[in-house]
Amino acid sequence: MQHGIRLIVGLGNPGAEYEHTRHNAGAWFVSELARLSHTALKLETKFHGLHGIARADGHEYHLLIPTTYMNRSGLSVKSLSNFYKIPHQAILVAHDELDLSVGDIRLKYEGGAGGHNGLIDVISHLNTKQFYRLRIGIGRPNHSVEVSDYVLKPPRKEERIGIDQALEKAYKILPLLLSGQYQRVMNQLHASD
Predict the structure, then answer these.
(1) Model pTM?
(2) Could you list the pLDDT tens digit for every one of the 193 residues in the chain?
């Protein structure tokens, strides 16, 4: 049976010093979804994160931003999905993606972690790769910059505009995600403008 998305997780690192860094692109997505849906995100210690329940188009869904550090994100995802009995096929994890250009955004099911510490931990805690990922392109640094330095720095102004435009596309396809119309989501997100 085709599940619609019931849990949207935004990966990031907690704290003001990380809030505007590229690595927090997933958390930006969920923060904005919460704002657009007038959903308060409250700190829930049992879920190790900020959590809220939103409603749209007759669907109820959970928003979660782990407050663990990135490499322990899976603890938060597992705690909430177990508590609400959300199947892993109904989980969408939004994260920054080095292998996509700034402004690109893709939906993917399954697959590896591509070296992303947040995804590595989610896969490890859920004990499966079978969940959806919203891959938010942040581009790759030039060779002189270490990846860890790059993801932990804020994007340049024009990059942030590109990322925000990509996220804008993702907000528009939320109804399709909630109703499980993944092929239509991919067609819309992956079509070049």
Answers:
(1) 0.96
(2) 468 999 999 999 999 999 999 999 999 999 999 999 999 999 999 999 999 999 988 899 999 999 999 999 999 999 999 999 999 999 999 999 999 999 999 999 999 999 999 999 999 999 999 999 999 999 998 876 788 889 999 999 999 999 999 999 999 999 999 999 999 999 998 875 4
In this structure, what token pair is assigned to residue 98? 């080095």
Catalytic residue numbers, as ranges: 23
DSSP 18-59: TTTSGGGHHHHHHHHHHHHTT---EEEGGGTEEEEEEEETTE
Tally the domains of the chain: 1
Residue 51: which domain range?
A: 7-180
